[in-house]
């Protein structure tokens, strides 16, 4: 039943009242325990298990009054437990709705965060593109500086050559001065003039020394400023290195959630490497500047001796100062770029942290939703178990309603069928409109038109399992012709997804039989198939075609129906076959389908003209415990009721319609007598009711599918079918009894349960 909850995806509420009581409206509230004689209580898992496993003790087994009172008290406690579970189920549903709303809000916020991250990524790309352009301009300027530096080096070489020439000239003058010493006396006037010139040169030299000392002071201040700038640059580089380390860690995290940003991060890393290379070239330029300054100092010392090179020294100083200003400008631009990069990295880091927090919040909300859904599934499973226990104690026939979808060419006109959305009736209620009047019905389960065959089978899978456990199980489909009974039971041939209940039941039984072999169980399975056509039983597995069908519609063989003392029904002269696999049964089903009576009417292209009964007898033995079980699975596809005014039947079709309506009318009389608990139940009025006697009034687990056609022209027949199903659901047929320790009867007759 847990699988049924998971596949349907709905919350199935409890079924505390029978169809014989007041109909549930869509606005009906869940039952409360405030007015019960026990007061508001809560149940634990142990209380529920104890309640289910409780055995009623009697002082005297012949004191039926005491037994009835104890049984009524036990049923009251079960109903109280179910009401408590219904209230708990409402709380879980409300909490689940809150969690889903919170999850939707967080998912929306997460989507907004992703859009913001994309915008930030675009901004980073623009910044990186701007940095690239700046880098290209810096490269162009550096190339110009390199050209100027080469020109300065050339001029410096020329100046060195000139200095060498001057030195040679000085040597020649010294020699001439030595020669001129002999002529010193004759050249006193010339010497005096030279002395005067020397004094003037000394004064000029002193002024030049003062100017040189001033330049040296300015140069020292510039060196200190450069040193402070170098220290600040080193600290900034260290900070940038730390930030780069943090950025690389964040880059790894971002790559895990956004793989598309890998290329951007790689380009960013390349840009950082280019900046580092630019820093190296900048350092080289600084070294060249320092070397030029040293050369300037050397030239300044030489300038005291050679005044002719003053202009060259001034030009070199001007070049160095211009290079220093350009270097400072480049440093400022580099610092600005690094700051912008740092700001963008911090913004990205904050966005990533916020995104991770939202992601963790979503994960927590999803886990809470999963826990709430698990609690709902557990509560629904326990509620179904309690509900099934009450049904077994009451002995009611379970009723499932299935509405088929509209077929091509059908016109629904006004919507005649609706489904209440209240929690109490959700999945179990159906409303039908006729002449502006609404008729409400509640069953054990209601399947909407888009329900798949698999979802329908999941709801009855546990009931089929009971046949392997030794119970008698009967499932039959009822409804007007063309409402989908044969599709529900047999499915659509050649389409595995639309297999009916009979093929799916057989697959489950054979799979379960295989899995129980490890526990020591061995099962033997026997199959029989018959149809009731014009109040005559036909053996559909017979190989004698004359025995199956004759011209007058009467079988020459007499298949008598007999009931034994154990509540089993035997059909004489019926073909019984042992089966080993579901494939064998599928072959037999195809054989029976070819032999079954079908015909065309105005209401249905292929209308079943007989009641089809499939019986599977299960005999199991456990070799380790020597326990024996006997179960019977009856799957019945009833012929559809129809009105002569709509079907247009004539001839043989008219006789078939009269026989079908008569047998279904007899079935209605039996149900009416059972509902009123009359002493006499007219089972013998038809072959169908006599064959189904153990299923309707014995110890069998019985389930009826009422099939409904949704088109407006079938409103009258649909209302009759729903009313009949409500009476069936109110019938109490007794508590199912498990058949154990009974040797299997392997003769030529088969029990129908």
Automatic annotation (TrEMBL):
Which residues does ATP bind? 479-486
Name the UniProt record assigns to this protein? Kinesin-like protein
Q: Which GO terms describe its biological process?
A: microtubule-based movement
Where found? Answer: Cytoplasm, Cytoskeleton
ATP-binding found in the keyword field: yes
Q: Which family does it belong to?
A: Belongs to the TRAFAC class myosin-kinesin ATPase superfamily. Kinesin family. KIN-14 subfamily.
Q: Where is this region: Disordered?
A: 17-38
Q: What is one GO cellular-component annotation here? A: microtubule
One example of the protein's molecular function in GO is: microtubule binding
Q: Which residues form a coiled coil?
A: 85-232, 268-375
Chief place where the protein resides: cytoplasm
Organism field: Arabis nemorensis
> What UniProt keywords are attached to this protein's entry?
ATP-binding, Coiled coil, Cytoplasm, Cytoskeleton, Microtubule, Motor protein, Nucleotide-binding
Q: Where are the transmembrane segments?
A: none
Q: Where is the Kinesin motor domain?
A: 396-731
Which portions of the chain have biased composition (kind: Polar residues)? Answer: 22-35
């Amino acid at each position: 039943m847990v699988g049924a909850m998971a596949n349907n995806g709905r919350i199935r509420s409890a079924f505390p009242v029978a169809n014989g009581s007041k109909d549930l409206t869509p606005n009906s509230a869940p039952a409360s325990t405030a007015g019960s004689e026990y007061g508001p209580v809560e149940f634990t898992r142990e209380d529920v298990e104890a309640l289910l496993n409780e055995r009623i003790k009697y002082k005297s087994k012949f004191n039926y009054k005491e037994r009835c009172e104890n049984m009524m008290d036990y049923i009251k406690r079960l109903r109280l437990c179910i009401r408590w579970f219904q209230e708990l189920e409402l709380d879980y549903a409300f909490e689940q709705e809150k969690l889903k709303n919170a999850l939707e809000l967080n998912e929306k916020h997460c989507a907004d965060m992703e859009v913001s991250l994309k915008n930030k990524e675009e901004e980073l790309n623009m910044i990186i593109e701007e940095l690239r352009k700046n880098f290209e301009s810096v490269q162009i300027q550096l190339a110009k500086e390199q050209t100027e530096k080469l020109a300065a080096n050339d001029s410096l070489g020329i100046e060195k050559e000139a200095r060498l020439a001057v030195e040679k000239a000085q040597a020649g003058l010294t020699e001439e001065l030595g020669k001129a010493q002999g002529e010193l006396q004759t050249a006193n006037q010339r010497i005096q003039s030279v002395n005067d010139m020397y004094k003037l040169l000394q004064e000029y030299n002193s002024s030049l020394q003062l100017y040189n000392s001033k330049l040296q002071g300015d140069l020292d201040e510039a060196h200190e400023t450069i040193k402070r700038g170098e220290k600040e640059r080193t600290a900034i580089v260290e900070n940038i290195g730390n930030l780069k380390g943090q950025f690389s860690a964040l880059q790894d995290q971002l790559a895990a959630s956004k793989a598309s940003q890998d290329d951007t991060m790689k380009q960013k890393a390349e840009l950082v490497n280019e900046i580092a290379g630019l820093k190296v070239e900048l350092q080289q330029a600084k070294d060249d500047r320092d070397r030029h300054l040293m050369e300037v100092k050397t030239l300044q010392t030489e300038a005291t001796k050679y005044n002719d090179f003053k202009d060259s020294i001034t030009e070199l100083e001007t070049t160095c100062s211009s290079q220093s200003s350009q270097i400072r400008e480049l440093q400022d631009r580099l610092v600005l770029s690094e700051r912008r990069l740092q700001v963008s990295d911090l913004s990205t880091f904050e966005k990533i942290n916020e995104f991770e927090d939202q992601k963790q919040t979503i994960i927590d909300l999803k886990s809470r939703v999963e826990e709430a859904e698990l609690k709902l599934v557990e509560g629904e499973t326990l509620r179904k178990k309690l509900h099934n226990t009450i049904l077994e104690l009451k002995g009611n026939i379970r009723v499932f309603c299935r509405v088929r979808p509209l077929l091509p060419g059908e016109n629904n006109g006004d919507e005649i069928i609706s489904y209440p959305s209240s929690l109490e009736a959700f999945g179990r209620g159906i409303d039908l409109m006729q002449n502006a009047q609404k008729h409400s019905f509640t069953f054990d389960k209601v399947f909407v038109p888009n329900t798949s065959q698999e979802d329908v089978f999941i709801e009855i899978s546990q009931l089929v399992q009971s046949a392997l456990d030794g119970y008698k199980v009967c499932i039959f489909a009822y409804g007007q012709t063309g409402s989908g009974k044969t599709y529900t039971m047999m499915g659509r041939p050649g389409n595995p997804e639309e297999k009916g209940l009979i093929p799916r039941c057989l697959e489950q039984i054979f799979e379960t039989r295989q899995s129980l072999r490890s526990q020591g169980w061995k099962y033997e399975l026997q199959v029989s198939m018959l149809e009731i056509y014009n109040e005559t039983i036909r053996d559909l597995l017979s190989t004698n075609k004359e025995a199956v069908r004759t011209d007058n519609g009467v079988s020459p063989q007499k298949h008598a129906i007999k009931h034994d003392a154990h509540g089993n029904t035997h059909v004489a002269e019926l073909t019984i076959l042992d089966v080993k696999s579901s494939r064998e049964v599928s072959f037999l089903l195809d054989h029976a389908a070819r032999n079954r009576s079908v015909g065309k009417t105005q209401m249905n292209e292929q209308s079943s003209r007989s009641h089809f009964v499939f019986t599977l007898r299960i005999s199991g033995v456990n070799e380790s415990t020597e326990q024996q079980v006997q179960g019977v699975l009856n799957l019945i596809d009833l012929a559809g009721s129809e009105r002569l005014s709509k079907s247009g039947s004539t001839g043989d079709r008219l006789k078939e319609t009269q026989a079908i309506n008569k047998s279904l009318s007899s079935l209605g009389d039996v149900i009416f007598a059972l509902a009123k608990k009359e002493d006499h139940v007219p089972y013998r009025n038809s072959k169908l009711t006599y064959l189904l006697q153990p299923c309707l009034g014995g110890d069998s687990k019985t389930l009826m599918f009422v099939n409904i056609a949704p088109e407006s022209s079938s409103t009258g027949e649909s209302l009759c079918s729903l009313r009949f199903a409500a009476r069936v659901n109110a019938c109490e047929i007794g508590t199912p009894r498990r058949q154990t320790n009974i040797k299997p009867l392997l003769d030529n007759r088969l029990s129908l349960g």
